[in-house]
Amino acid sequence: RQSTGSKDTGCKKRFVCPNYCGSSFSHNYSLTRHLKYECGQEPRFKCPYCEGLFRRTSNVTQHIRTRHIDCKQYAIDVISNRIVGVIGEQKRSKRK
Question: Which residues belong to any copy of the C2H2-type domain (predicted)?
Answer without folding.
Answer: 15-43, 45-73
